[in-house]
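Quick check before the chapter quiz. The format below is the same one you will see on the exam, so make sure you can read both the input and the output lines.
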Amino acid sequence: MTGRPTPEEQAPAQRPSGRHGPEPIGVTWDERRRQPSSFGWRRRRWRVRRVLERWVVETGWWSEATRVSRSYWRVEAEGRVLELCYDRLARRWTLERILS
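Here is the expected output.
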């Protein structure tokens, strides 16, 4: 441990629209690689250079009112690191966070 803050500690993750939460996006899916290849956000097409991490959140399966089924993708796109989310129940993509 060096005592210096990591980049994530220096600049905490931000929501794409400030305090308003996730924003809807349109995703182009690469079926062969089973991952997003690009997405549209704010009238711009962002090419996914690489997937850094992927995880799934499954909870509340015992009750339709609390059920959550989402896939998250931390990606590098156009020199930035962002988190994309696919809500399997609503069948929609959102940009969750901008990390850098």
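If your answer matched, good. The first strand starts at residue 23 and ends at 30.
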